Amino acid sequence: MTASATLAELLADLARILPKERFLTEAAQLAPYESDALTAFRARPCAVVLPQTSEEVVEIVRTCARHKVPFTARGSGTSLSGGSLPVEGGVVIGLNRLNRLLRLDPNERIAVVQPGHINLRVSDAAAPYGLYYAPDPSSQPVSTIGGNLAFNSGGAHCLKYGMTSNHVLGAKVVLPTGEVVELGGESLEGLGPDWLGLFVGSEGLMGIALEVTLRLLPKPEKYHTLLAAYDALEKAGDAVAAVVASGLLPGAMEIMDNLAIEAAEAAVHAGYPTAARALLIVELEGEAPQVEAEAEQLSRVIERSGPYEVRVARDAEERMKIWKGRKAAFSAVGRLSPDYIVQDGVVPRSKLGRALAEIERLSQEHGLRVANVFHAGDGNLHPLILYDGKVPGELERGERLAGEILRMCVRLGGTITGEHGVGMEKKEYMPEMFAEADLEAMRRIRRAVDPLELSNRGKMFPGGEAPAVTAHGAHPLEQAGVISRE
Amino acid sequence: MTLRPTTVQELQEAIPTQERWLPRGGGSKPALSTPRAGQAVLDMTGLRGVLEYDPGEFVLVAQAGTPLIEVEGLLAQHGQYLPFDPPFVEAGATLGGTVAAGLSGPLRQRYGGVRDFILGVKFVDGEGNLIKGGGKVVKNAAGFDLPKLMVGSLGRLGVLTEVAFKVFPFPKATVTLRVSLGSLEEAIQTLYALACSPFEFYTLDLEPSPARLILRVGGLGQALPLRIERILGFLGTSRAVERLEGEPERQYWREIGQLQWGAGHLVKVPITAKQISALEARLPMGERRYLSAGNLLYLRWPGEIAQLDQLLRSQGLSGLVLGGGEAAHLESPRIGVDCSQAFGHRVTQALDPLSRFAP
């Protein structure tokens, strides 16, 4: 059978599952789905389907499996690693309409949601009970739980509270073969192997979550948010080490460098001291008497770290303002430069200073500015590499610089990604981190679960998997050899 | 037959030489570490020792056969601990055995269980390949989460050789409150109220009869008196509260962590607080304890394990027999509801195609 005959049959079968308005095949309808937040990659799916029920998702996956056509599940498309990039000629399963909160049990402190439920809405729904959902990726006002789960999203509070996988208790999942299984449950404990633990963060390669059981935490009684301004980035890094050495375990420790401060200030007027070479945000949280005692200890440690200015948020409004600047930093950098690449490699906390110095050196060597905004508490860097895509050669230089930063992270004992995932963007760097035997074991697991490699084909593994079903021609960047989709 | 490899290479080379293997650490959980017919034993205590530990990083890397007591001793010298609070420390349990059995203790209430603290693993699969997953930093999203997969794997997917953990500073001061309550129902309602409150407990355990909650509070010493006062105020004045501090407190928790309750089987049951009443109505008198706000039950079962198997099934629960009784001769340490599914079967097949680690 020819490829086009297969495609026609697939589309006919999908049309039987979904009404026209939720089954998109026109070029103009498909265009918005051609890329996610990593816009350097683009691929045209053959169709976008917008299921409204779990049953429809299962039917769609079974149909794709029957026709051996790859599919990509997509939430709000905020992936910074190209995780929800379509497979060329494959099917995109848009899950935003599966956005219901199915159940919230305040006593047991769990919420059961559909995959298209927005991260921040979980906390909104839990708020009347004094509870919240801890993982807080910067994208949380728009990103979905399904996407957070697939990429094991992080946020600013991972040292103390862990990543998404530490807050997912159970999931009902449709496997790439179309079978439906239940992983995990409602208890914080389980009997292993921890299948759910493997599924979370598997980047869509093992199927699609249909229902997700999340763990909720009681909202801290009190926050103490401190902002310290330094005349050198190194001093801020040393301050982080000193805070940890003192035995404190802050909920969050964030550093922004001068370029990031400037951008954030221009965007949201957070009131940051703009002359600072580095800003450190430290947030303590917990029971009021404990936080008050810790705050005294913290101010002693910070005082000794040589800041030229220290501010403490006096109320919730001031706290929100401090965080607003931090959370807006990414998009704010867009004001400084037409394009940027963001990386999320991790280094051991004690190597932060070295890593930052090395980034500065690489920045000069490649002739591109780099803004740094990062989760210092867990060593999670976020170098934002600024370039202008219209200037010939800048993107390539940016990509090279980004690659060198990732290699440095691995060299210093860290990882190529702390929270954005490997996706399309970092798959060629996987061999820096893992030996061939490690990758082969992961591939064996992948093929055992998805023998036809249909589910989000082409992500995470270097060198690519099976070829796409149909070729629509390469993206201009690909033709130029800038990106590869192999 | 028992083999005690002292290098990873020796272990890798040994795997193809036997049809069926059972990896064993310190042997502190006999129901999991006693070979069945046809199984040769891999004694992993020859692969021991802490490989990396920088207190400032909150990360510890050790060989899987390292005894917990050694790890805890080292961490304590720097005011740190394993926050998931593994049991059987004094019985000689190892890091690898703890991960493979998937066991956490009372302190898991504060920050999470073993799955929440494991960062990296190395293991040898059913074909003798050495495989690495995860890493040595506290935040990592690269590749499949093989470290979590290994939690509770009972050696079925491979033999752990190295594990990396996130560790935390131990609170500068702690106080334990044993709160007596009028009935189990009252204890469960109080447990809910406390678990949903902003009070932060290092332990939130429930003893069903007589009904009692055991709360451990930790933090800076100067803040503790006020915090305790507020908790007592929250609980109301009518409760009998016993207070433990210092050496008696440490001794109390050390004993709890050994789970030594006399004759009968020792069983782990993952559970939720809302399932406790129905289960308690059908359980005979005996030692047991619900940890972490009703999420983890350790119980002693004096009778036939088949009866407990039936009982757990009727409640929609599963259990893992750890030891005691004729545990070593059980058909399987897994009892109650069978949660196996296609996903698990396929992943197992991928890592151990010849079923070398099958029971």
Descriptive notes:
The complex is a heterodimer of chains A (486) and B (359). With 486 residues, chain A is α+β, with helices and mostly antiparallel strands. Chain A folds into 4 domains: 3-94, 2-Layer Sandwich (Uridine Diphospho-n-acetylenolpyruvylglucosamine Reductase, domain 2), CATH 3.30.43.10; 101-218, Uridine Diphospho-n-acetylenolpyruvylglucosamine Reductase, domain 3, CATH 3.30.465; 220-336, Alpha-Beta Plaits (2-Layer Sandwich); 339-433, Alpha-Beta Plaits. Helix content of chain A is 35%, strand content 18%. Chain A contains 16 helices and 18 strands. Chain A has helices at 3-17, 27-30, 54-67, 119-126, 145-150, 158-161, 195-199, 233-245, 258-268, 288-304, 316-333, 352-366, 394-411, 430-433, 436-449, 476-479, and strands at 23-24, 47-49, 71-74, 91-94, 101-105, 110-113, 131-132, 168-174, 180-184, 208-215, 217-218, 222-230, 252-257, 278-286, 309-312, 339-342, 370-375, 383-387. A 7-stranded antiparallel beta sheet of chain A has the order 15-12-14-13-17-18-16, with helices on both faces. The longest helix of chain A has 18 residues, at 316-333. Mean pLDDT of chain A is 91; it is low at 466-486. Chain B has 359 residues and is of the alpha+beta class. Chain B folds into 3 domains: 2-169, Uridine Diphospho-n-acetylenolpyruvylglucosamine Reductase, domain 3; 173-247, Alpha-Beta Plaits (2-Layer Sandwich), CATH 3.30.70; 265-336. Chain B is 29% helix and 26% strand. Chain B has 13 helices and 19 strands. Chain B has a 5-stranded antiparallel beta sheet. The longest helix of chain B has 13 residues, at 246-258. The model of chain B has no long low-confidence stretch (mean pLDDT 95). Classes of the chains: A alpha+beta (486), B alpha+beta (359). At the A-B interface, helix 6, strand 9, helix 7, helix 8 and helix 10 of A face strand 8, helix 7, strand 10, helix 9 and strand 18 of B.
